[in-house]
Specification:
The chain has about 240 residues and is an alpha+beta fold. The chain has a single domain, classed as Lipoprotein localisation LolA/LolB/LppX (outer membrane lipoprotein receptor (LolB), chain A). The protein contains 5 helices and 12 strands. The protein has helices at about 5-10, 30-45, 115-125, 130-135, 160-165; strands at about 45-55, 65-75, 80-85, 90-95, 95-100, 105-110, 135-140, 150-155, 165-175, 180-185, 190-200, 220. Residues about 1-25 and about 230-235 have low confidence and may be disordered.
Length: about 240
């Protein structure tokens, strides 16, 4: 799974709207086995809850920034990302709309992402079938994963336009559950966002209002998304 909430990272976020080359690259048997594991997980998952530690290493930051939060997912395409530290923020993607609530600023951000909702879910790689990944990325697998108990999959966008912004996504797929335990995004400019998922709960019951966000009375409402930092969500591209 992520999101992910600095305004500066939104300027780095690409869309996946670039044209995919017609020719398909050969996929190794090792990659095929990992994709089969992802497909099995995709067929079984209904809901997910996980704690997330997000580390951002950006050229514009003097030192890495560490954020913590909770990620929720439910079919068909609903995501909720609650940041708990260093400050509290909530982002919900539901019915094609992203809504963010930033209490310290008494600010609500609302953006229509209906044309990109599936692509956003692809970036988080939760509940995502392998065929979609095949269309968008060239994929290789490390012989030995750098994270114990996982298979390490490297995704490079096929779109040359996108590679200028998002150079690579690296997924560490859990060998048992077939879902990511870690995700790393490298931008074309050398910035990095690393997500580490823990306490993963699959198909547990979620509260009925998990994906609802009531706009607080008196909050400033803007029709833009400036504070969600997961690469691939911020701009329209």
């Amino acid at each position: 799974m992520a999101c992910a909430a600095l305004a500066v990272t939104a300027a780095l976020a690409p869309s996946l709207a670039g044209r995919t080359p017609k020719s398909a690259a050969t996929i190794s048997p090792r990659v095929e086995s990992i994709l089969a594991r992802i497909d099995r997980a995709e067929g079984e998952i209904r809901t997910l809850r996980a704690e997330v530690t997000e580390t951002r290493r950006l050229r514009l930051l003097a030192k890495p920034e560490v954020l913590r939060g909770i990620l929720f997912f439910a079919r068909p395409e609903q995501l909720r990302w609650d940041y708990t530290s260093p400050d509290k923020r909530t982002y919900i993607l539901s019915e094609g709309k992203m809504t963010g609530w930033i209490p310290d600023q008494n600010r609500v951000e609302m953006v229509d992402l209906s044309s990109r909702q599936r692509k956003i879910r692809r970036l988080v790689a939760i509940g995502q079938d392998s065929e979609s990944l095949r269309r968008e990325f060239d994929m290789t697998a490390q012989e030995v994963s750098s994270v114990s108990g996982t298979s390490e999959l490297v995704l490079v966008p096929k779109s040359r336009r996108l590679r200028h912004r998002l150079a690579e996504i690296r997924l560490w797929i859990d060998d048992e559950i077939g879902l990511p335990r870690q995700l790393r995004y490298l931008t074309g400019g050398g910035d990095e966002v690393l997500l580490i998922l823990s306490e993963i709960d699959i198909n547990g019951e979620l509260a009925a209002d998990t994906f609802n966000l009531r706009v607080p009375e008196g909050a400033k409402v803007v029709r833009e998304l400036t504070s969600f930092g997961l690469p691939g969500i911020g701009d329209g591209g």
